[in-house]
């Protein structure tokens, strides 16, 4: 869906992106995370075709975003960290204005506005002025504007910034819904616990480089196996031996809790639970293990810094991004 190849971007005296390369899978939500100054916003600007890199390419399918930006923008939605709305326009007029800017034909424009409003839960606010909306609803309107033309890809820079917990919960549901409808999302945020609720992939940056890019579903182990958590009503000294005898692998026991890896579909998992009970284990809970995004992220940064992988300052960065011939 999206390919970024050897992207380099320089500010005067500072290299913001240093050979960034990765690919985004379709129908996914990628969490773009990293410390302040890691290059996240610069990367999103380059991916959106709003900033010209000194070197490298961004492709949306077969479209070179920087060579034919209008074609790319027809299939892409973008929401910056600091977005603006026309406060005196109604929600309907804001969406209609964006639909016109995206060259949606007049015969389809009303339906596009209605569809975007429905997706973001704004159908009952169409006649309300944008300036009268709450912070959370303004955020929804900004996202609705970004998707009014039915883009294949959406880039969101800190979309939950300034939202209260209830609004963040609602936003997470909206983003999951957009993915389920077939859109591909890249979301930059510092709220790791929130990202874990809806993201499918993790992309970690530090000092302009990619530290890690992987699927975020921590329940999947190599070879298609899955990781599980088992909790007993009371500790069992023979828990590890019992689990090993049942045929699971990578057993780790901590008191009444155990983690292990097993293979098979839903039917096989049901059979596994039955064997655990038949083995006499007082099972209190049994479920697929969840990844801990925050712990994984902090550990990754700590390990990277311990290995001394911090970027040296650029020897001679150009004063402005070099334009392609």
TrEMBL record:
Alphabetical list of SUPFAM superfamilies matching this protein: P-loop containing nucleoside triphosphate hydrolases (SSF52540)
Keyword set, alphabetical order: ATP-binding, Nucleotide-binding, Transport
Molecular function per GO: ATP binding; ATP hydrolysis activity
InterPro entries documented for this protein: AAA+_ATPase, ABC_transporter-like_ATP-bd, P-loop_NTPase
Transmembrane stretches, start-end: none
Domain of life: Bacteria
Domain ABC transporter: 2-232
Pfam families reported for this sequence: ABC_tran
Family: Belongs to the ABC transporter superfamily.
The protein, known as: ABC transporter
């Amino acid at each position: 869906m999206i390919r970024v190849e050897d992207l380099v971007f320089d500010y005067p005296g500072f290299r913001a992106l240093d050979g960034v390369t990765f690919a985004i899978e379709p129908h996914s939500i990628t969490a773009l995370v990293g410390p302040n100054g890691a290059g996240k916003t610069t990367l999103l600007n380059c991916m959106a075709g709003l900033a010209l890199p000194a070197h490298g390419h961004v492709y949306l399918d077969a479209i070179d975003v920087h060579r034919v930006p209008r074609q790319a923008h027809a299939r892409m939605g973008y929401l910056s960290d600091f977005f603006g709305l026309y406060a005196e326009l109604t929600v309907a007029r804001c969406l209609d204005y964006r639909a016109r800017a995206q060259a949606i034909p007049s015969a389809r424009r009303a339906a596009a506005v209605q569809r975007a409003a429905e997706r973001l839960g704004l159908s009952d606010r169409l006649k309300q002025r944008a300036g009268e909306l709450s912070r959370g609803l303004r955020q929804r309107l900004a996202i609705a504007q970004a998707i009014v033309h039915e883009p294949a890809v959406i880039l969101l820079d800190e979309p939950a910034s300034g939202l209260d917990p209830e609004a963040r919960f609602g936003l997470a549901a909206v983003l999951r819904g957009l993915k389920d409808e077939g859109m591909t999302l890249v979301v930059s945020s510092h709220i790791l616990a929130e990202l874990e609720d809806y993201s499918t992939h993790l992309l970690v940056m530090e000092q302009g480089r990619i530290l890690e890019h992987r699927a975020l579903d921590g329940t999947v182990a190599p070879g298609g196996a899955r990781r599980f958590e088992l909790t007993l009503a009371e500790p069992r000294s023979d828990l590890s031996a019992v689990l090993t005898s049942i045929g699971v692998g990578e057993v780790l026991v901590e008191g009444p809790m155990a983690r292990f890896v097993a293979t098979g579909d839903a039917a096989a998992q049901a059979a596994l639970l039955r064997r655990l009970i038949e083995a006499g284990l007082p099972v209190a809970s049994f479920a697929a293990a969840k990844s801990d995004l925050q712990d994984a992220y902090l550990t990754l940064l700590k390990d990277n810094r311990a290995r001394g992988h911090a970027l040296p300052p650029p020897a001679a960065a150009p004063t402005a991004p070099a334009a392609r011939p």
